[in-house]
Specification:
heterodimer, A: 254 residues, alpha/beta, six-stranded mixed sheet, four-stranded antiparallel sheet, 9 helices, B: 321 residues, mainly alpha, ABC transporter involved in vitamin B12 uptake, BtuC
Chain lengths: 254, 321
């Protein structure tokens, strides 16, 4: 679904990404980890078509990303951003409905089919009951569910998420990542999530890409990447690793 | 909770405002006092409708593009820039006839557009315009153009009267051959600009969520932003060279519009247009009827607008805590 070849991205004198190459297939759930400033968010922005002056090549669905216009790209890729602001009090339903706009013409109202897709997206991320509420009065967790539903309403083939569980309580962390996981395993969506919490990455992803100073340091299954010998030089701190008693996935203790 | 079903109120409000505008003023109360008085009041009401509509739609579009409910052509220096351009064309003696009308528009537009791009560059932080930097940039750009206008005023001879007129905001324009050209240009720009912005209403809704967010949902953000800035500056420039600087309509009206029909620009832009026309007609009616002499309508809108702005700031502050 996505093929990246020798991607390098510079701004000013800083090289944010250096010589990144990777392949990602439909149905995968990939965790993107790395220390602060390692280039995770920049890589995600490049894949989302939000940065264009990079060198190298990004192919989406077999077509070069530069050959998509913004509307065509939005029909394939949707993004859950880290920071979201809502200066005006749209209802939750109106926000989710905005996810249908890449499929609509100017001034065209949503069709019955669009409304069905919107309802289904809200059901998937468990926010149907918030429909008529104003987005400005929702709690952080409720808001994130609405934002995820908006991304799902785009019916993406690729879902990119930038720290989607930031500032959320345990229940909502699980809810957001469970929804993403279900989407990848059941609907064949390629999910790539930047995750700061390594334990969440270990628990929910089948493949983990570790970035360090803008380059890929490791790219494998959680048990291969989340090892002391790999993480310690990258994060520059002492850690211990245990296995989750139920899932047998690695968990990091500091 | 808001009530979307109040959209229908806006044409009713405009109708009442037009009635009030035709009934009040020096010369007595009543719709048909005399044909002479009606022929004075009617053009003012129509001019007020055009200017009010243009300013309100500009304000609503600007608030969406900048994702900030405090944005407005006057506060961000667009009106000030346009006023300077107009004053410059006046002092250079380039303002008579059809060619003069176009020159006036061109000068006014050039400095109006310069103002909005300057504010945008100064205030943008990570693809957003936080209120603090936006208002600060607006103040600075306004101060700059005020300084330039004062310079022109100190150099002006017989054009001083015209300049004061431009600065104060006034619908008491005399219909001469020159001003009819200006009026025609303004009418064309405001109507076609408003229609274009309305066609873009879905994209404007997405832009309120932020530039990256809008881009990821298929909005060609960079291009759309520039087009909206240009159209807004064209409309404001045309209105400033016609009726002078009238502030706060673009700030107050979109808020009132959201109370009636919610933040969706597909409804908000037309509702703002109607309410903007109503508010300016009513303000001008007040300006004409309050005393024995006429108060510039810009004074009335400022007296209404400043408390409104303070209320918005206060509400924003209390939401943050």
């Amino acid at each position: 679904m996505i093929a990246v070849n020798h991607l390098t991205y510079r701004y000013g004198t800083i090289t944010a990404l250096r010589d990144i190459s990777l392949q990602a297939a439909s149905g995968e759930m990939i965790g993107l980890i790395g220390p602060n400033g390692s280039g995770k968010s920049t890589l995600l922005a490049c894949l989302a078509g939000l940065r264009i002056n990079f060198s190298g090549r990004i192919m989406i669905g077999g077509k070069d990303i530069s050959r998509y216009n913004s509307q065509a790209l939005a029909r394939v890729i949707s993004v859950v951003f880290q920071d979201n602001f809502f200066p005006f009090d749209f209802t939750a339903y109106e926000i989710v409905a905005m996810g249908r706009s890449p499929f609509l013409k100017a001034l065209q109202d949503e069709t019955a089919r669009d409304h069905k897709i919107i309802e289904e997206a809200m059901r998937q991320s468990d926010c149907c009951q918030l429909k008529e509420r104003s987005i400005t009065e929702l709690s952080g967790g409720e808001r994130q569910r609405v934002i995820l539903a908006r991304s799902l309403a785009q019916q993406p083939k690729v879902l990119l998420m930038d720290e989607p569980t930031n500032h959320l309580d345990l229940k909502h962390q699980r809810l957001i990542l469970d929804t993403a996981r279900r989407l990848s395993s059941q609907s064949g969506v390629l999910v790539i999530a930047v995750l700061h919490d390594l334990n969440l990455a270990a628990s929910f992803c089948d493949r983990i890409i570790l970035l360090h100073q803008g380059a890929i340091n490791a790219d494998s299954r959680p048990n291969e990447v989340l090892k002391e010998a790999v993480l310690k030089p990258v994060y520059e701190t002492d850690i211990d690793i245990v296995l989750h008693p139920r899932t047998n996935r690695p968990q990091i203790l500091i | 909770m808001r009530n979307k079903h109040l959209t229908w109120l806006s044409p009713l409000i405009l109708f009442l405002a037009v009635l009030a505008g035709l009934s009040f003023g020096p010369g007595g109360f009543g719709l048909l006092v005399s044909p002479e008085i009606a022929s004075i009041r009617l053009p003012r009401v129509l001019l007020g409708a055009l200017v009010g509509m243009g300013l309100a739609v500009s304000g609503a579009a600007l608030q969406a593009v900048l994702g900030n409910a405090l944005a407005e052509p006057y506060l961000l220096g667009v009106s000030g820039g346009a006023a300077f351009g107009t004053a410059l064309a006046l002092i250079l003696g380039l303002s008579s006839g059809l060619a003069g009308a176009f020159t006036l528009q061109l000068f006014s537009f050039f400095f109006g557009v310069a103002a909005i791009f300057l504010v945008y560059r100064l205030a943008r932080v990570h693809g957003r315009l936080p209120s603090e930097t936006m208002i600060l940039s607006g103040v600075v750009v306004n101060a700059f153009f005020s300084g330039l206008i004062m310079l022109l005023m100190s150099l002006a001879g017989r054009q001083l009267q015209d300049m004061i007129y431009i600065l104060m905001g006034n619908l008491g324009i005399l219909f001469t051959r020159d001003t009819v050209f200006l009026l025609a240009i303004a009418l064309i720009l405001v109507v076609s600009g408003s229609v274009y912005l309305w066609i873009q209403s879905k994209n404007l809704n997405l832009l309120t969520l932020g530039e990256a967010q809008a881009q990821s949902m298929g909005v060609p953000v960079e291009r759309l932003k520039k087009i909206v800035f240009f159209i807004m500056a064209l409309m404001v420039a045309a209105l400033v060279s016609l009726a002078g600087v009238i502030g706060f309509i673009g700030l107050m009206v979109p808020h009132l519009g959201r109370m009636l029909s919610g933040p969706n620009n597909k409804r908000l832009l037309p509702v703002s247009g109607l309410l903007g026309a109503s508010l300016l007609i009513l303000s001008d009616t007040l300006a004409r009827s309050l005393g024995n002499f006429e108060i510039p309508v810009g004074v009335i809108t400022a007296l209404l607008g400043v408390p409104f702005f303070i209320f918005l700031l206060w509400r924003k502050k209390s939401q943050k805590i």
